[in-house]
Specification:
The complex is a heterotrimer of chains A (335), B (244) and C (293).
Chain A: H1 7-25, H2 29-54, H3 62-78, H4 84-106, H5 111-131, H6 133-136, E1 149-150, E2 153-154, H7 161-183, H8 185-195, H9 197-202, H10 207-233, H11 243-256, H12 262-279, H13 288-302
Antiparallel strand pairs in A: 1-2
Helix pairs in contact in A: 2-7, 2-10, 2-11, 2-12, 3-4, 3-5, 3-10, 4-10, 7-8, 7-10, 8-10, 11-12, 11-13
Chain B: E1 8-15, E2 23-30, E3 35-39, H1 46-53, E4 61-66, E5 69-70, H2 76-82, E6 84-87, H3 99-106, H4 110-114, H5 116-126, H6 128-132, H7 143-156, E7 161-165, H8 173-188, E8 193-196, H9 200-206, E9 209-214, E10 217-223, H10 230-238
Parallel strand pairs in B: 3-8, 3-9, 6-7, 7-8
Antiparallel strand pairs in B: 1-2, 1-4, 4-5, 9-10
Helix pairs in contact in B: 3-7
Chain C: H1 3-34, H2 41-59, H3 63-88, H4 97-120, E1 134-137, E2 140-143, H5 144-166, H6 168-178, H7 180-185, H8 190-213, H9 224-237, H10 242-282
Antiparallel strand pairs in C: 1-2
The chains are: A mainly alpha (335), B alpha/beta (244), C mainly alpha (293).
């Protein structure tokens, strides 16, 4: 399982270097902003892939974890005066806690019921946020959220230079953690459960516990991303729970392909730029989501493995003969 | 040299699931009004054969013709419309529907609807037990009753030929007899039959000819009139290694 | 608890329950027959309401309302058929059809919602009620239109039930849902019936949307909240049985009415969800449902 001179690893390292150099080359604040948002979405998409793709849990409430991170961090920083760095971590933890709550019914349910419960959960969170407007600002949102500081470095006046690197760091850490997770024994066990639940259970994999852990892990990163999002933008709005956001991020997961962590990351970068680019076109501010929806459908119809499946892949992570699969079968596999 | 077309004729039929061919080029025929049996060890393609004829699966190559008409381009329901009816093995039918509903529904095609009431009377007469339980749901039926209903359903489709896949599987000897006589009754109407059965003696009593299917091929054709004894059949099953 | 209170809760509960029953039945029909969950159902409802509004409002005459309704329903059915062909049929053979169609119908929902927002704008619209004025039911006053809904829902559902039970196509639809292979072998055109079922469901959605649109304000997302309620209902009632779904719909309607009365409209949805979780912990197949499909 040596990864030494893998072409893919080299490519990733090269891209990372490019990523580090971007703010030195790109001075435009708006473009830097796009990168930052893209990195954040990438974290959400990649962590969604953990529960949806690798563990095969039909979790459709993932974006709610992101939103919980947004609001938990925002409220912690603004109302409780907690240091924004810490508040971000709190955002992640709050999302994890919510995941634990959702996991209770979900781990015992099958198929469509998981979809329905997680989906209903995300709607519920939206309801709570809107209804508790005294605290959350309701549909107007939360404003004037304090932002991070680092030894006196002022993040607000440097044209997003500092934020960029924090966001990139967040992304790199998340990807590293997620990749480590999926290659660990834990990762093997959740894939085993995905591919053949009964067999996995009979071999002693504690299905409820593993699913709980998966949900909590993936929620943590999404919550963390949400925390950074609110600290960066300094506002929070219920838009984060909207179907538009869900569809955008889901399409990142689908386009990127559920069989790798990198896929959704690159898809996030691409789709964020495309989506934002379209937002500036006259009349497409809302209409662009129709295009996102169409893109999702097209991918599902023609490239169910995501764009990543169109590229030749090194199969270092999987034993010979098994592709990465989505439970209960590969996307694209015929019955 | 056939004065008129066979009821069913297969030529070099190849079919299978996924990447494998189960049927290795089967050729056989069922003449008009003839009763033909298929027997052989499990897993060697008998059910696959019926599935390929009725288009549950699509054959890879070879030809099938029914009453002189090629079936290549026809879908499953068109084949049913033509009157070639497949009664599958261990049919779970429609668990939440009642016996009467199921029988009435089975006269779905236009042709079947024309004779619906007549066929309904016939089926209930053939299987009085079904008449007794007409409002019972399929999922509550016993194995034997379900088999009867399965055959009844096939009859309601106004068959011009019936293909039965192990109609007496798992039934008690008494029920086997009941079904055997019912099948005999049906064939007296002149409907050609293709019958899959494990129970040799059962098959022998009902059919005019038999094919032995082994590893996806026809290994042997046996006429009823010819002398075949039990031991020879055991040989066929166990490849000549059967202990006496 | 006074008689007035009981009456209020009962009546508003029945009104809610009637709407939910219509909605959940459409979902249940598609689920039991095609085995998929149509997330765009709410959007189809909304589309029906918008189309009926356009036709009846543009004309300005009351008798155009009937025409508006008919055309709206037909149009939505057309959209439904299109959806089935593009978003569901291509995946018939796939083992993970459920997951894929969740995503395609979700995409369809977004497409429709945004499309309606572009076409009709985000401002609120109101459909003219078919019957004006108010009515007194069990001591509580509701609008005559709401009373109409209460009466119409069981009628429509009764018709649906009768159709499924006694007609050839209706029985065929049931058969396809229970055993598609066996259905093929008696000559049923399975994919044809899939279309019929989806069209039926879409038509039902349109009617529900039109009825609802006459007592609530129509916005592009006005189908989203009932959809979530419908989700909860099908989980409570179990997706597999139409009867169970309808019963659950009325139950949830009553429950919601009671909760709104006692703990307010903001907390009611959360309470329902908490109850849902509690029920699922005890009975993973829902209150009235069978073990999942």
């Amino acid at each position: 399982m040596s990864v030494a001179f893998n072409v893919r690893t080299l490519a990733v390292v090269a891209l990372l270097l490019v990523g580090l150099l971007v703010p030195l080359v790109v001075q435009d604040t708006y473009i830097r902003h796009l990168f930052i948002v893209a990195f954040i979405y990438a974290v959400v998409a990649a962590s969604w892939d953990l529960s949806l793709g690798y563990a095969g849990i039909f979790n459709f409430g993932h974006v709610a974890f992101f939103g919980i991170g947004v609001y938990a961090t925002g409220l912690a920083a603004k109302l409780l005066g907690i240091d924004p760095w810490l508040a971000m971590v709190i955002g992640g933890l709050a999302a994890s806690a919510a995941a634990a709550l959702v996991a209770l019914p979900v781990v015992r349910l099958q198929g469509i019921y998981v979809v329905l419960v997680t989906f209903a959960f995300s709607q519920l969170v939206l309801q709570v946020v809107i209804s508790q407007s005294a605290v959350t600002g309701g549909t107007q949102g939360l404003v004037r959220v304090p932002t991070i500081e680092l030894f006196g470095y002022n993040f607000l006046r440097d044209y997003k230079f500092g934020y960029y690197y924090v966001a990139l760091l967040l992304l790199v850490l998340t990807v590293a953690c997620l990749r480590w997770l999926v290659r660990s024994d834990f990762g093997l066990s959740i894939r085993a459960l995905r591919d053949n639940e009964d067999y996995g259970v009979s071999r002693g994999i504690p299905i409820g516990l593993q699913r709980l852990k998966v949900l909590m892990f993936s929620a943590f990163f999404a919550g963390l991303a949400g925390g950074f999002y609110v600290i960066y933008l300094r506002v929070a709005s219920p838009e984060v729970f909207s179907f538009s956001t869900v569809s955008l991020i889901l399409s990142m997961v689908l386009v990127g392909g559920t069989s790798s962590i990198y896929g959704p990351v690159f898809a996030a970068l691409g789709l964020t730029f495309v989506s934002e680019g379209l937002a500036n076109v006259d009349g497409l501010a809302e209409g662009r989501f129709m295009l996102v929806a169409v893109a999702m459908i097209v991918v599902l119809l023609f490239l169910p493995g995501g764009l990543a499946s169109a590229l030749p892949r090194k199969r270092l992570e999987q034993p010979a003969g098994t592709g990465s699969r989505m439970r209960p079968s590969s996307l694209g596999e015929k019955a | 040299m056939k004065p008129k077309a066979h009821a069913l004729e297969l030529r070099e039929l190849r079919a299978g699931y996924d990447a494998y061919d189960v049927l290795q080029g089967i050729s056989l025929h069922v003449g008009a009004g003839e009763r033909v049996g298929l027997f052989g060890p499990n897993g060697h393609g008998k059910t696959t054969l019926l599935n390929a004829i009725s288009k549950i699966i699509v054959p890879r190559s070879g030809s099938v013709s029914f009453m002189g008409e090629a079936l290549e381009s026809l879908s499953a329901r068109r084949i049913v419309e033509r009157g070639l009816i497949h009664v599958p093995q261990a049919n779970q039918l429609f668990p939440d529907m009642e016996i009467m509903e199921t029988l009435e529904l089975a006269a779905f095609t236009e042709r079947a609807r024309r004779d619906r009431n007549a066929n309904l009377d016939y089926v209930l007469g053939l299987f009085p037990r079904l008449a007794e339980r007409r409002r019972q749901q399929c999922k509550t039926l016993s194995g034997g009753e379900r088999q009867m209903l399965s055959i009844g359903v096939g009859l309601m489709c106004a068959p011009r030929m019936l293909m039965l896949d192990e109609p007496t599987l798992g039934l008690s000897p008494k029920l086997k007899q009941e079904l055997a006589s019912a099948i005999g009754e049906i064939s007296k109407r002149g409907i050609p039959l293709l019958l899959i059965e494990q129970d040799i003696s059962f098959v022998l009593s009902l059919v005019d000819r038999m094919y032995f299917v082994d590893h996806g091929e026809i290994a042997r054709e046996i006429d009823r009139g010819s002398d075949v004894d039990h031991e020879e059949i055991m040989d066929m099953y166990f490849g000549g290694h059967a202990a006496p | 608890m006074t008689a007035d209170t009981i009456s209020t809760i009962l009546v508003s509960g029945i009104v809610l329950g009637s709407v939910y029953a219509l909605m959940a039945s459409g979902l249940s029909l598609v689920w039991t027959t095609l085995g998929i969950f149509n997330f765009a159902h709410g959007a189809l409802m909304t589309l029906g309401a918008y189309m009926a509004w356009t036709i009846s409002d543009a004309a300005g005459l009351d008798l155009w309302l009937a025409a508006g309704i008919a055309i709206a329903v037909a149009a939505v059915i057309g959209v439904g058929i299109l959806m089935e062909r593009l978003l569901i049929r291509p995946f018939y053979d796939r083992r993970d059809i459920l997951l894929i169609t969740v995503m395609t119908t979700l995409a369809a929902m977004i497409f429709l919602e945004k499309g309606m927002q572009l076409a009709w704008g985000a401002r609120l619209k109101q459909l003219r009620p078919i019957v004006p004025g108010n009515v007194n039911l069990l001591g509580t006053t509701i609008s005559a239109q709401e009373a109409l809904i209460v009466v119409l829902a069981p009628v429509l559902l009764g018709l649906l039930w009768f159709f499924l039970r006694n007609s050839r196509i209706g029985r065929g639809i049931r058969a396809v849902g229970q055993n598609p292979a066996a259905a093929k072998l008696i000559g049923i055109d399975v994919s044809g019936l899939f279309i019929v079922t989806f069209a039926l469901s879409a038509g039902l959605a349109a009617l529900t949307g039109i009825l609802l649109g006459s007592v609530r304000l129509v916005t592009p997302t006005f189908g989203a909240e009932p959809l979530v309620k419908a989700l909860i209902i099908v989980i409570f009632g179990g997706l597999g049985s139409l009867g169970g779904t309808i019963a659950a719909a009325y139950l949830i309607g009553l429950l919601e009415a009671a909760l709104i009365f006692f703990i307010g409209i903001y907390w009611a949805p959360s309470m329902i969800f908490v109850l849902l979780i509690a029920i699922l912990l005890i009975r993973p197949q829902g209150l009235l449902g069978k073990v999942e499909r």
